[in-house]
Queue: 4 jobs
Job 1
Amino acid sequence: MACHVLSEMSPGGSLMSTTSETSMQHLVSSSLQAEVKLQYNSLSELLRTLLVLLSCQDTILRRKMVRIGQSLERYRDVKLQQFRSRLAMEDAHLANHLVEMLDSALTKYRTWLEKKSASRISS
């Protein structure tokens, strides 16, 4: 049953027949598409590394985790901000998901920092 519902809700399914068939290719320029892909690839690599390191116990890996957290903050403050400022008003929504992913990752990083600080204090 669940598989059937998912297939009906997927593009091309009967429940999606009223949605627009317009793809991103027709809505934004190819240079903007390339920039969006670049931003996603860059952020994805940082997020992948962060998620691998979240469960680390090794001191060296913890230091790397701090560097990754700082890199995420720099990415937000520099690269993502530059990207958002270059977007036209009608294309500003293209950065929303990037911002949400980054905010979520930074929240996880800060939680990790707080736990590490609390464990050092109680030790």
Job 2
Amino acid sequence: MAEAAAEVDLGHLLAFDPTHHLPSLPSSREELVEKCLEKGTELVQAIADSLFNLAATEDSDGPVVKLPPPTTKLPREKHLPKPKPPTKWETFAKAKGIKKRKTEKVVWDEQTGTWKRRYGYDRIDDDKDVPIIESKATDEVGEDPFAKRRADKKRRVAKQEKNQLQNLKEAAKMGALPSHVQLAATALPITGTHAQPKKMSKDELGNVAGLASTATASGGKFDKKLPGEKKAKHDHKYRKFLPVAVGSGMGLTEKEQTDRVLNKLISSSSHEILNIDKAITMYNVKKEKKRSNQKADDSSSPSKKMKPNKKIQKKGPKKGSSDNKKQKSKGPSNKSKSR
């Protein structure tokens, strides 16, 4: 019954049930969310069933379905734009029966022998491309024709800007300003409600003067003061720098501050610096590896077993024998001396 009552609009991929209602109020928010999810699942399933009933064409990405035009009219977020009032030229052209003709953007330039734009950059008959200007009988003597041509161009541009502002004013009265102009309507003299510049108070002027005086490299310390100029106010706190040399008093503050930060870091991450259990395990593993390597070396070298463990030492001469020899050699000489 719920699927039959659901209305599906495939143009917007939309499905809704106008007859849906809850038989009883849910006792909790979780129950309400669960019922809404159940109903939403049914509506999504109805959209899927309607899509699979349409004729599909095969593509490299899979079956493709062309959606029908939407049947539900969704409400518009913004109001309908109002029609713009006609400009002065449009009013004049309509009164005279002048119709707008479509002109080509590119025109052949005979002077340069190339195709150029009709308007804008690198256009035809640009002032920079005209080396010679023919004089006329109405020209004044001594007048620069190039300067006159530039002045006429500035005059035309100023007149065009004035006409554009006037057209925008007329559109503002009708409430049909373009969207990109509505943002700047308060800053431009279009609507006639341009706010007058606010007069600055004495304190504001003093603040501006203080900012200007301290905007130098020295912060205004070596700048000359005007007569009657006051010192700029400093509302914020001055920064205090610790001394570089360590000594008594303030000199120990930096050391104490550094020690405090290091102690805090070490205490917070002491478990990451040294893991005692892990260190003991690694030591035991290394010790066992060393023992196993020594046993392997002993078993692999059989020649070491054949060698005696005791070291052979050479016997030295006895002390008594050397003394007797010395005495025997000295004996005859003593006798000869006594004789």
Job 3
Amino acid sequence: MNKTKLITGIVLFAMTLVITVSSCFYGNEINNDVKLTEDKVKALQSVNADIITKSVNQVSKLSTNVLNTNTAATNNLLADTSEEPIVIESNDSIKITKKKSKSSKSKKKKKKKSKKTAKNKRKKKKSKYIKVGTFKVTGYCSCARCCGKSTGITASGTVATAGRTIAADTSQFSFGSKVVINGHTYTVEDRGGAIRGNRIDIFFSSHSKALDWGVRYCDVYVKR
């Protein structure tokens, strides 16, 4: 609105100035040369009218350009803020305040809850096991070279089974204890003369598989 008022004032001032100059010029011409013909006067008036028309047209074009730029700027501003609700305060200057939508708040709450639940799950998973220490872990089978007998019966009276049976020091682990080695859960069902302290023997279905295992040092965990 301020720009429109300014442009209108400029137009009126230009028209007044042109009319004043033309009237002065016309009066001087009459005083200096009384013999000026009516044709020359009409030509002079037409020229002045053309000048006034051109100036008015230029000012009107300028005003339309300014209005077009203002409308384009407001449209862009509305397009940028259309995604979120806005509040327009009726002051001298327009203030646009963005409001956070309820959906974004709910999403943030859900993310926080999911993070908390994930942390709690991790804590629970970790709390299921207790690290006993690092043990020397070897392999054995039910042959006479490994056990001195080939019956396959453990010291606890169970049948040795690959993937389940291990021999351990019963002063540390009682029969039936669940022991986790490399993420796999075994059951203490056997013992041996050489299995003392931080030493565990894993049962395998064949002597070759026991040899393939060899000697390894692993972290040993027990379930609570």
Job 4
Amino acid sequence: MLVAALDRTYRATHFHKPVHMSSSKEHGQEEQPLNWNARLKIAIGSARGLAYLHHDCSPAIVHRNIKSSNILLDASLEPHVSDFGLAKFLVDDESHVREDATEKITKREKTAFYDEYLHSGQVTAKSDVYSFGVLLLELVTGKRPTDASFVMKGLHIVGWMNTLMGENRLEEIVDRNCDNMDVESVEAILDIASMCTSAEPEKRPTMKRVLQMLEEVMSPCPSDFYESHSE
């Protein structure tokens, strides 16, 4: 598994606010905001880790706690999926995790899969996909999932993104401190995040497909993403 055992790490939780979406200070230097290429690198590396857990491990593993603070970055900004304290093996032909009826969900466990667990008593790989979609939104916006700017309006980061996208207000979504953003790739990433955070788990893509789409965005021609997705 991709548990990071690193002498030197940077936590993605430092990226929650735009001013902290940055590389670390060294030798008195000021923090520099991460540019768009660095954020894409974090996105695709994190997706690769999750795809490994879901599709290459036997039995497959559901992480159940994917969030920015559990993605560790090394000195080269290579992401490593960490904290497997809540991870479970996928079991039976339905590919879901069944919890013991006496198991209690603590505040620490109230991540993206929480509502699905309460509704069905099950957590699937698609719960990790939802969490990854939220991570993508954090990378694009530089905001926490519960940032006060939209929580005060009764929204969370997914509802806020859907509202602004529906009103074609892209410029209000992106982190203004992020350099080298191009509209085409940002829109592609937001489309992937939207698919990952669909309210209907069966409509979410697999992590294998998410990784493929991200690789297409990283290709020399991001429009390849739209061509392949329309097929």
